[in-house]
């Protein structure tokens, strides 16, 4: 029983940050029709920025609780700086072009940002320890878990609900959904599609950055951290269905629980477990578990 609880807790913790990152990836694809290879780099930028902001707050001898605010501000800063530079200065010139070309462009962005992070932060790992001990421990049965893990699960739920509410219950969200359905029709009705693209891309970067920022206390922030994240994130959105927000949630849960089960029962199959689940889903549902709504062709 204790092992089952441990598998569930570890799986939910892993799925929580993965859902936040994958949510940004699937949102960008749904709106801009871009399979963003550089999404993992935005996650890494969020983690590095959080390490810098939290370290600065500690050097200023601010209260440890401020480290949570510092991580949030780090994600906001990454989105505010990187989104205009990448969407306005680069991606906007490739909209409507061949999908393979867009993949190559985002792959080039990924390579550039990998080098940028090394130039700015160096090759040595960073550790963000302050936030991890703020929430104490949680006792379940005979096992003790770090309270921060449950905070991360709560953050994922809050982010998912906020994005859903923003898309389905606000005027701006309805405009975004209209662009997702048909950018041409939305433009003919007076919608500034370029502005919607910028908004969606900024939110996508923010979600990747906040995923990295709030995962930083749980990992060693070092070069190469973006590679594993983008691979697993793609597995999530492929399982759930590209462009589907519910699919991102279900896909993250499936991947998180599959990985946790493998780690506790057969550690050598950790990565294999994710890919075998993805292969099984694609065998029966090539479009993913939740197919994104397509515009009806006439």
From TrEMBL:
Signal peptide coordinates: none
Annotated Gene Ontology cellular component terms: plasma membrane
Keyword annotations: Amino-acid transport, Cell membrane, Membrane, Transmembrane, Transmembrane helix, Transport
Cross-referenced CDD domains: TM_PBP1_LivH_like
GO molecular function, a single term: transmembrane transporter activity
Localization, UniProt: Cell membrane
An annotated GO BP: amino acid transport
Membrane topology: Multi-pass membrane protein
Annotated TM spans: 12-35, 42-59, 65-83, 95-113, 145-167, 196-219, 225-254, 261-284
InterPro entries: ABC_transp_permease, BCAA_transport_permease
Recorded coiled-coil stretches: none
Family, similarity comment: Belongs to the binding-protein-dependent transport system permease family. LivHM subfamily.
Name of protein: Branched-chain amino acid ABC transporter permease
Lineage: Bacteria, Pseudomonadati, Pseudomonadota, Betaproteobacteria, Burkholderiales
